[in-house]
Design goal:
Elements lengths: L27 H9 L15 H6 L18 E6 L15 E7 L3 H11 L4 E2 L2 H4 L7 E4 L6 H10 L3 E4 L8 H14 L3 E3 L7 H11 L6 E9 L8 E2 L2 E2 L12 H11 L3 E9 L17 E8 L4 E7 L7 E8 L2 E4 L9 E4 L4 E3 L5 E3 L2 E4 L20 H18 L8 H19 L5 E2 L8
Parallel strand pairs: 1-2, 1-4, 2-3, 4-5, 5-6, 7-12
Antiparallel strand pairs: 7-13, 8-9, 10-11, 10-19, 11-12, 13-14, 14-15, 15-18, 16-17
């Protein structure tokens, strides 16, 4: 048994870490330096008051229940950083939130953020924005390798944080730095994992809470994104995505099991596939793979298969299937099959070889549009990005701050989604070796 908060340490054959608090778009050379050098940002010694949200965050809670929206008079003043993906949320529509300021290095993106969020104040960098004393929290939608450094910078200035995925980039040192920062400053951190609030995942979580699966003994999830290399080079310069390892971006898939059952992934065996592409021969990560496929063991002795694929003759998707002994649920498949429920039955049939077998009941599932329900405040009840998840992420972060509770995807949940991918990639580099996964346990 591990002591509370004590992470098990395993060898890190390719674990290199970087941490620069500078807010910038990374060139190939800058990214290589960031990934290679383990530099920890200096943290201010100034103490901030610990909020009640952190106290609540230390309580171990099972799989979060669906809770209807409950607005309150307190307003959270948020700063939004990153004018690409960061412009696709609904902070300005939430009744308990005010967009106080926005930031991006590019003036055109700053102007775009100001227009989307109807905000008159902007800053040229995150480092300037966090100095604004009127801002309570910061939404970080910057380059992946900068998420942890930017959380550090924000929390040094007393700001709660929500960041895009993944929570930590590529190394255990980043994961450990994120957790130590949240614990040090006692502020709220949330990862904006869309998989948690995609409509099929909400349905699966409801089925699980109602016991409809019986024993949910197996799950598989896949993230297919062919053609991602169009984002590798922009304006003739390599971006931070150039040659990134698939399993360093695992959370769209790992969330499909963990957010439903609350299980933790404890061991992994992973295999990768690559070709002779120059992207795989010369990248900052030393990554030779386009696609990675992993088989995980969970702390309940169950199996979980996870695929992250960047290339191949397959169609893009983020989907899962949850298999139980009483019921199974298959989310819509990109090849045209809609959502399906299969229920165990006693009626017998014969297979094509003439052998008797039980005939399971097969039924189409009409996906509930949860974003239309009172799970959200009325102004947010419209379809948003990533299968309606953006409005839920917006509401969850603001509502957690307003009511002094931990968010669903807090730092411990975020690391449970992220760290298994870091270790899975190490397994793939070792030819599929079985490796144990460090556990970050929420204090009780």
């Amino acid at each position: 048994m591990n002591a509370p908060n004590q992470a098990v340490r395993f060898p890190e054959p390719c674990s290199r870490s970087g941490a620069s608090a500078e807010h910038r778009h990374l060139s190939g050379d800058q990214l290589a330096a960031l990934y290679r050098d383990a530099a920890t940002p200096a943290c201010s010694r100034r103490q901030f008051l610990k909020t009640s949200a952190f106290a609540v965050a230390t309580v171990a809670v099972a799989t979060p229940r669906l809770v209807a929206a409950d607005t309150a008079p307190k307003k959270i003043r948020i700063g939004v950083v990153g004018g690409g993906f960061g412009a696709s949320f609904q902070w300005h529509e939430h009744p308990d939130c005010i967009v106080e300021a926005v930031s991006d290095l590019r003036s055109d993106r700053r102007e775009g953020l100001m227009k989307v969020y109807r905000c008159a104040k902007s800053y040229p960098s995150l480092e300037e924005l966090v100095k604004d004393p009127t801002i309570d929290a910061v939404a970080i939608f910057t380059d992946g390798p900068l998420h942890v450094p930017h959380v550090v910078e924000c929390m040094k200035h007393g700001k709660h944080c929500i960041s895009a995925v993944p929570a930590a980039w590529a190394t255990m040192k980043q994961a450990e730095l994120l957790l130590s920062t949240v614990k040090k400053y006692g502020l709220t951190y949330m990862m904006a994992e869309t998989g948690y609030y995609q409509q099929p995942t909400i349905s699966a979580r409801k089925f699980y809470q109602e016991g409809k699966f019986g024993s949910l003994y197996y799950c598989e999830a896949e993230y297919q994104h062919p053609g991602l290399e169009v984002l590798y080079v922009i304006d003739g310069k390599r971006t931070w995505r150039y040659g990134m390892a698939p399993m360093h971006y695992p959370t769209h898939t790992s969330s499909q099991l963990i957010s439903v059952t609350g299980e933790r992934l404890t061991r992994v065996m992973c295999h990768g596939w690559g070709d002779d592409s120059p992207y795989l021969k010369d990248n900052a990560y030393g990554n030779p793979f386009w696609n990675e496929s992993a088989m995980f063991s969970t702390n309940r002795g169950h199996a979980f298969r996870l695929n992250v694929w960047w290339k191949g003759a397959h169609r893009g998707c983020e989907r899962a299937q949850w298999i139980g002994d009483q019921m199974s649920f298959y989310s819509a498949h990109p090849n045209g099959v809609g959502s399906v429920i299969v229920r165990s039955g006693e009626q017998m049939e014969k297979d094509d070889a003439g052998f008797a077998r039980k005939a399971a009941a097969f039924e189409k599932y009409q996906q509930v549009e949860w974003w239309k329900t009172d799970l959200l405040p009325e102004p947010l009840r419209h379809n948003t990005g990533h299968e309606g998840s953006h409005s839920f992420l917006t509401h969850e972060f603001i509502d957690a701050l307003v009511h002094g509770r931990r968010p669903t995807v807090d730092v411990y949940e975020a690391l449970a989604y992220t760290v298994p991918g870091i270790i899975a990639h190490q397994s793939a580099l070792k030819g599929g070796e079985l490796i144990g996964i460090p556990q970050f346990e929420r204090p009780v």
